[in-house]
Design brief:
Number of helices: 3
CATH architecture of the domain at 49-133: 2-Layer Sandwich
Helix content: 25-40%
Number of strands: 7
Strand content: 15-25%
Largest sheet: 5 strands, mixed
Structural class: alpha/beta
Shape: rod-shaped
Strand order of the largest sheet: 4-3-2-5-6
CATH topology of the domain at 49-133: Nucleotidyltransferase, domain 5
Oligomer: single chain
Length: 134
């Protein structure tokens, strides 16, 4: 006895792409929102390079010394003879205040040392010289 061949329908398995795409977009949005997009704006300087650097995480006072030797605090130019008074006012009440000096790599060393000396005299507990990682 011969039986007629029945047609069989083969179903292909498909992964649920809709939920996979949703998860990928959620991860993309998460990483975009948690990425740090802060750009340093202000005075254009080229920091010196160093192979052993560490990131500063605490609140500090930053003094920028550009290539010409001008000093800036918060993008405001402060002459060297007024720097002591401005720093003394900002360091008031902080025993262990951190002052970061961002000096251009082309600045004369004497000017950067003079700024460090003024900061120490104004009451800075700690001094740091900003560098770029190689």
């Amino acid at each position: 006895m011969l039986f007629p061949k029945k047609e069989r329908y083969f179903y292909q398995l498909q992964a649920p792409l809709t939920s996979l795409i949703d998860i990928v977009f959620l991860l993309l949005i998460y990483f975009l929102l948690t990425t740090n997009f802060i750009v340093d704006e202000g005075i254009k300087i080229k920091l010196p390079n160093a192979s052993t650097t560490s990131a500063q995480t605490e609140k500090e006072i930053t003094i920028v010394v550009d290539k010409k030797g001008s000093t800036f605090i918060e993008n405001r130019e402060v002459p060297l003879n007024q720097l002591f008074g401005v720093l003394k006012e900002r360091l008031q009440g902080r025993e262990d205040g951190l002052v970061v000096i961002r000096a251009d790599r082309g600045v004369v060393l004497n000017k950067a040392v003079r700024v460090m000396d003024v900061a120490k005299a104004a009451g800075a507990g700690r001094l740091a010289l900003a560098t770029e990682k190689k």
